[in-house]
Amino acid sequence: MTKSTRILLTSLLGFSISASAFAGPDEHHEGRKEERHEEKRREERHEEKREERREDRREDRREDRRDERREGPRGAPPAARFERHENRRGYAWVGGSYQYRGNAYVWEPGRYEAERHGMRWREPRWEVRDGIYIRTDGGWMNEGPSAAPPALREERWEARHGFVYIRGRWNWADGQYAWTPGHYERERAGHVWREPRWEQRDGVYVSVDGSWE
Question: I need a surface site. Which of 51, 89, 170, 178 has the fewest CB within 10 A?
Answer without folding.
Answer: 89
